[in-house]
Queue: 2 jobs
Job 1
Amino acid sequence: MAKEYHPENPELAEILDSFKNSRELGTMAVKSAHEAGKVIIGSFCQYAPMEIINAPGFCNFSLCGLNYDPPVPLAETKLPANLCPLIKSSYGNVLGDYCPFAHYADLVVGETTCDGKKKMYEMLAEMKPMYVIHLPNNPDWERSLEAWRDELEKFRKELETRFNVTITDDDLRRTIKISNEERRQQARIYELGKFDPPAITGMQMRSVMSSVYYLIDKEEKVQKMTHMVDLLEEAWREGKGPYKPDEHPPRILISGAAIEGVKEKTLEIIEDLGGAIVCYEGCCGISNMRRPIDETKDPMTALAEKYLDVPCAVMSPNQRRYDQFRDTLDEWKIDGVISVTVHSCLPFGIESHTLGKICEEKGVPFMHLLTDYSPGDEGQMRTRIEAFMEMLH
Amino acid sequence: MSDLKLPEKFDEYAEGRKNGFLRVKAAKEAGKKVVGIFCTFTPVEVFDAAGLISVGLCGMSDETTADAERDLPKNLCPLIKASYGFALTEKCPYTYWSDLIVGETTCDGKKKMYELLGQLKDVYTMNLPQGPDRDYAKKMWAHEIRLLIDVVEKKFGIRVTDEQIREAAIKRNEFRRLKVELMELLSMDPAPISGYDMYKFLESMGFQFTVDDSIAAVKKLLGELKEQITSQPAAAGTGRKRILVTGCPIGGVLDKVVGSIEANGGQVVCYENCGGIKAARCFVDTDAEDIVEAIADAYLQIGCAVMDPNNRRKENIPELIKEFRVEGVVDATLQACHTYMIETYWIRKICEEAGVPYMSLETDYSQSDKGQIDTRIAAFIETI
């Protein structure tokens, strides 16, 4: 088993424990939202502007598929086998009606991020009401901001028309304020990894991040996260963190995308073998959390600017990611980087090459793990991680 | 011009490749500048207007795949790997001599490969909209074309006027019209030229140095074919099955796919691929007040699978099936080309609705599946 943190503080233990089973939390949350008559939006990416979705009180749930069987083999009856497992899993979960979030979704929102998702959405539209926001390829404001702001306006109008609601600028200012706070607290969770030794384990970061996602009441969510991080910092100061004060495990940065679906064979093994995952970079990592929305600007412009700046590998060029990656190596005092990408994910797969070069320049050991949701490569993953960890110790 | 150095390994190259290098070198010594391009989305009118040579750089063989795989994932489209590999190994004269390479954000693989290519060559990437139907798409693409004009002007220290661009567009339209006329000859039964030869000819147009040369070459072939049709009228009904080829760029797998179709009793009568009729029928409105917008508009009509949604292709294929009296559709995709692979779902449906047999083939630039593909194609043609 990977290292687990059992704090002596009963309140903290209870909070961490409540975040253990995100899947269950999510199923309960979507059911109760549905029963309360709330509009449910299914989305995939961090590009989905949750501030617009939340403004009229709609709930947003992620439809990213994380499991292999049964959705992936089912999806492969219609989609190419040689495709990212997250995309196949997401599609298969809708096709087989295995996903409670998709089941209850009144509208599914996608963005033209990667080729696979973009084209999968066209097929998903045969089964669910679907709206695709066109994300530009180039993040340069001069070239893309106007079109992107226009896309977000179109999306806002789509929600207004489809569900007969009005989304005012004041509604948006309110959701922007709370989501900024939400991201700030999420960043603090990753920042717990900056402590030496870390004040949280990497696996716990993941279970907390994927569970807080399902706290629909944002005020409650922010409060709970703030309190939890405060308690974790306190425990660390008292020398009661997950590591003994004189323990200095190798500090690992995880980079990449779609890691949630492969965490058992990658992340868990890394911590099992004595590494401490201190931060995540890439999709759902620190990058997006530290980019707040400008609260002083016109809200739609501020939203457009923020989301265009998300340094996902679908952006070309994606200099922002490389810059932030370098900074993260220094700020978290990283001893080794493991880039985890899934089969057929071309943007993250290709960018991994550049991350490796940056690490080489900075003298930080780097490894790229290419894996899939399908079973079979657990042994190979373990062997490679073992070799890497041995080199770090 | 002593700064025009040949690649280090030039002496080891085969005769044909050496000649390619020397041909471009001679043009450069005469003061010409070369722009390398990849896609049918590239507005070549800009280069024509600027007096630049534009050549296609899409890699067509697996000669350099292993080299490319040092920097790129193995599971990536062979065309992308080959294009990068030829740049890396300095084996392609056109890439090697390119003063500027212009790409577009089309598919994920190309878009990200261009970033790496930018470390080897001067690469400029245009920002293609994600779909043709948004009300801002034309404006956005026109803006990108204007940015490209700026890039070209700065890079080569020249001025490109709208009038020059309009003249270039008129000429390109003529070239398109002639190409379409040539391709339409295949609607005859029997077709006056094999699909294989037709493609080889169309492909060679990508390496002509001026559009005038291209126009002259098409006119010549058209004349010969028309002459042949009148002088030796063939009896109708050769029994060859009339095949439409669609999918990814076919150049790198032409022998495996088209060679096999035509060796097994088929005749390719239409290419819906990007080198074929799809882009050739996208004419520029040369009378438009804003010529750059007119060019943007024409290029956005190309029904490429990177577009979301790609209704143009879905509408076009049933029409082509009728026009060319197609009896079977072969959808050839390259390994890891997600957009075209996923669209096979729709094309299969469209063909089913049209009552035309359909086959999807996924292949790459290696020779390992040659026998298997040949067997599958032979069986397919037999069932028609």
Job 2
Amino acid sequence: MSPDSVDRVNRRTMLAYAGTAAAVGLAGCSGSDGSDGSDGSDGSDGEDGGDGSDGGDGDSFEIGVTMGQMDSGLDPQDHAETNTEIIVGQVYEGLLDRDKEGGIIEGLATDWERTEDGNVRFVLREGVTFHNGDPLTAEDVAFSIRRIVFDDVGIVSPQSNDLGTIDEVVPGDGEVVVDFASYNPIAFQLFATNGPIMQRSWVEENDGNYINQNTNGTGPFVVTEYDSGNQVAYEPNEEYWGEANPVDELTMGASSESSTRVNRLLAEESDIVTNVPPQEVSRVESSDVAGINSVASARIIFLQMRYDVEPFSSQQFRQAMNYAVDVESIVEDVLNGFGSITAQPTLEGHVGHDPEIEPYPYDPDEAERLVEESGHAGVEITLETPIGRYLGDVEIAQAAASQIDSLSNVSCELEQREFSSLVQDVTAPNIEDRPRFNLLGWGNGEFDGSQTLTPLLSSEGALTVLENEELDGLLADAEATQDPDERVDILQEANRLAHDLAPWVFMHQQFSVYGVSSDISWEPRADEFIDPDTATRQ
Amino acid sequence: MSFGRFVLKRSLQGLGVVWGVVTVVFALRFVTPGSAINAVAPLDADQETRQAIAAELGLDQPLYVQYGQYVSDLLRGDMGFSYIRGQEVAGLVFARLPATVELALAASVVAIVLSIPLGVLSATRRNEPVDYGATLLSLGGISTPNFWLGIMLILVFAVEFDVFNTSGRGVDVGDVALSLIGAEPFVGTLLAWLAYITLPAIALGTYFMALITRLTRSGMLDELSKGYVQAAQAKGLPQTLVRYKHALRNTLIPVITVLGLQLGTLIGGAVITEAVFSWPGLGTLVIESINTRDWPVLQGSLIVIGTSFVFVNVLVDAVYAYLDPQVVND
């Protein structure tokens, strides 16, 4: 941190002098000398000086990002959470990448295709070097994929399911062939989101402790300082194969307190802050140093209902719950409009989304009628919600539970649960051990409907609350077909079926809300990844 | 009992407490909800992956085996390996400890520098406006939650007046020390350090400032009413000498005891202040570890915090016994 922080502080030298005078004054006397307070006020006069020195920044484009949490180590293949992905993702790249909207673009591969036997071939970009100067080879790529999917290659990676079921990876001359256990219709989607590439010899020469504190990727940034749990400093990779990086210095830090993140933005100590809560949005928007940028994320929020227990075993009752919850008002009032209503498991823009499906309207009368028809009038249910895991989760659940409870023939209570505790039940091996009715969020970084439908609603899904042969059949067909258009049709049909079966109360698509300094121009991405190298000076 | 035996006895008692801390902290993992496997595995991980992760973390072993292994590793100085961060726990914890100690010491300085003069002033000018002001200030200091105070300090002095940094620890006291030998300009580095540490130190130290102010005031009043003070005054000694050389010196003995004990509390109690100021110390590490269910790191952090507290207590006991030999016999 030292170089950056000293520079940063130098820019504020005048302010620091004045502030220190006040601090020293405070510490050095009994506090009865009011003149010390005046010294503090003088500090504010120093702002002009600070602005003046900001002008010196004209030579150097520095960006500071503050997230909610720091990384869990720098090994790009040994984590499964977004914050680490953002921090290591500045350094490591995959074979394919995504644009801002989630479309697949080139990464370390310049070409990709299906082979005749249904496997996939990636043609590697030429002239790519790791940050240590060594060239990228097909052997490095094959090793990296193996390290993720095979338990006996170094680590048990939590990403082992992220690339599908792979039998073997065969390096060739400037290319790599990935041999799937069976035809994988979303192979390229998987590789566009997952599979960071590391250098084989570097990984094999170093232990996990070292790999988690040092980096050697091919990406646009090189780590210059890693202060675990505090911040990571980067400089541009001068040998990068892509476009010239406009950012001269990048610093990534974190604060778990949202108010502190916003304060960092408003004090011009940070240029991009993540997860600005709805109640802080107006404070940012009313300032003249920053604004709000938001984007619909790949995360869907829903209330899932277990099909095998009463009253949720009744399709009518499940539909009634959908009519009972006023999602529009929840998005407007709780989320300040930062969300969009959903009608199906697949989000708009994802493969398989059916734009024809309409959300369930808010209709308490219809809800009461369906509850009567289901034979469960007078039932008492409990909605379980995690605390602080998703944007406004508790408030959303409170509103939904209250609206359900206001039905004349259903009583609904809310149970708030710590996320780790709830998720232990949600991921229980047997469905009968899972919660009956709970709020959950699901991120679909692959932008493909099957990546939501299969784990959450197929009979064999790791988190499923539903068993329906017709839906299972459709998902199996979608998995088997090699015709992309036909696959979209099948997934759309699966979404229509899911809408009617109503295994969830379809809530909303969560937005990613960022505070962005007025000094820069930067557009957020749908997949929650932060790409500071696309920022420009205002 | 000799002084040496007293210290030995206290140290052995301290070791017993540390062992208790180790056991309780280890047990916490099994009585709190949530699984470490879910912290590592993605939500949709299949059962095979979960079992493989459990085996890799040693969580498939019987409880007594895990406990025995943990205590045995600790005795060899091995605090374990963070399965979330992929790093040695000892390295992570001891990398954060200096920041917490630095903040605790800075908060103590804030507390001492303000409280003792204020307490003395309050006692020597009893029932005067200064006394009322000091009493009000100390009452406010004790009543104000430090997270609220921290946020207010940030809003006023960092955001509104842009005088201090809002959060983080850009420069540490080591950088200041190094600047003395010319690595960086000393004044600039010192000011940079103060820009980071001042607000969290005030937020954390205010409660103790208030506490010690009250303690100093009552102690000073007590001493001033004693016969030896009146004798000294009757003898014609200057008021300043009587107050500051005789009365204050005696007042400070319990104050120092409390200060020592509070230093231990500050090390363990800085969690909220560290979170508000994103101060990269042990408190932040504890919160991060809880959020990610990183049990080895959480256990290591809590053991270090607990051991620090015990160490400071034993040290204070020893100093107190040294200053007042009656304690040994009691």
